[in-house]
Amino acid sequence: MQTRVSSRHGQLSPASQSKIEAKVSRLTRYFDRLTALNVTIDLQNSSLPVVEIVASSEHFHELVSHETSPQLWRSVDGAVQKMEQQLRKHKEKVRDHKHVQSSRRS
After folding, report:
1. Residue 61 backbone phi and psi in degrees, to 5
2. Cα gap 19→65, rounded to integer Å
3. Rounded to two decimals, what is the model's pTM?
4. Which of 53, 51, 49 is nearest to 70 (CA)?
5. Looking at residue 96, what is its pLDDT?
6. Starting at the edge strand that comes first in sequence, how are the strands of the sheet with 34-42 ordered?
7. Between the CA atoms of 101, 99, 86 and 80, what dihedral angle is there, to the nearest 10 degrees?
8. 29-81: per-residue pLDDT in tens?
9. Does residue 20 sit in helix, strand or coil?
10. What average pLDDT is seen over the chain?
């Protein structure tokens, strides 16, 4: 799985990038078929950083989560939490769809 952390309208320190990458890489626990995670941090308004996470997976469209908060780390945690919920929901749909029992009898 590829993880990419980028920023707009500002720079992130390498330590911050590695911390964000570590937090986002935990998402593979919820859905193991992820192929790429792209994290974009928009620092245009320094008092309200915007974090966007785009997750790409096999045989499914991209999942996107956004979060805005006064602190960067709260934004990152909120976006990761939203993505966790989406991945759990998607995994349940996939799992339930494959194991549906038919009530019709031949």
Report:
1. -75, 170
2. 18
3. 0.82
4. 49
5. 72
6. 2-8, 34-42, 50-57, 60-68
7. 150
8. 888 888 899 999 999 988 899 999 999 988 888 899 999 999 999 999 999 99
9. helix
10. 87
Q: Which of 25, 46, 21 is nearest to 34 (CA)?
A: 25
Estimate the crossing angle of helix 14-25 against helix 72-98, to 10 degrees: 20
Question: Which strand (E) or helix (H) includes residue 45?
Answer: none
Per-residue pLDDT, 99: 59
Helix and strand numbers, DSSP H then E, in the chain: 2, 4
Domains of the chain: 2-96 (3.30.160.100)
Q: How many CB atoms are located within 10 Å of the residue 93 CB?
A: 11
In the three-class reduction of DSSP (H, G, I as helix; E, B as strand; rest coil), residue 61 is classed as: strand
Nearest to 94 by CA among 52, 63, 66, 65: 63
Tally of CA atoms within 13 A in the half-sphere of 35 that contains its CB:
7
| Assigned token pair, 50 | 């915007």
Q: Which residue has the tokens 């499914």?
A: 60
